[in-house]
Amino acid sequence: MVRTKNAAVRNQLIERAAQMLRTREPVTLRSVVAGTGLSTMAVYTYFGGMDGLWQAMRQEGFTRLAAELNSVTPTTDPVRDLAALGAAYLSNALTNPDLYRVMFDAGFELEDPAAADETLHCLVRAVERAKDIGRFRPDVDPLVLATQSWTIGHGLASLLASGPLPRHALDYGAPMLTALFTSCGDDPETCSRSVELGWRPETPAH
């Protein structure tokens, strides 16, 4: 008899494993189901084993990131939108710090690599729009600039989510993005206004 998989159980196991990472508990086959009322067979049923659970955690991290980026409504100011996408990236990382750490563990394949790639292409499209209206020089490579912008966000997110930097370090993002975008041809004053409008990361309450 084939059993129907329950999405709630699958999510429960992913959240349980993430919580264990947060509290620095060893994530093992037995520990991940302890106290859940599930047997170790559930990990095999839903993920095919522990490797599959780690893979699913990576994918869930990108799924939540994609949802956060998709919540950014495009405006007529693509430079503001680039900053807003960076802020959304930070917000997602600080809301889901445990899944965020797992997202970039290349030791486990993603279930849907294209969905992860799409999170970067959101930035690429914003850069292309900025080029189209003359905010960036024609020779700017959209993928390169999108990657550079992502690097700034990722660096801040990693240091903030892990704790070395205080939350007010979020303020560093706006001047770094402004410097990057003006180096690509944007007018400094216009760029600064655009970035300030977009760079408004939402952080979870302590």
From TrEMBL:
The keyword Transcription applies. Residues 82-171 form the HTH-type transcriptional regulator MT1864/Rv1816-like C-terminal domain. The keyword Endoplasmic reticulum does not apply. Gene3D superfamilies: Tetracycline Repressor, domain 2. It comes from the Bacteria. SUPFAM superfamilies: Homeodomain-like, Tetracyclin repressor-like, C-terminal domain. Coiled coil: none annotated. Keywords: Transcription, Transcription regulation. This is TetR/AcrR family transcriptional regulator. It comes from Nocardia abscessus.
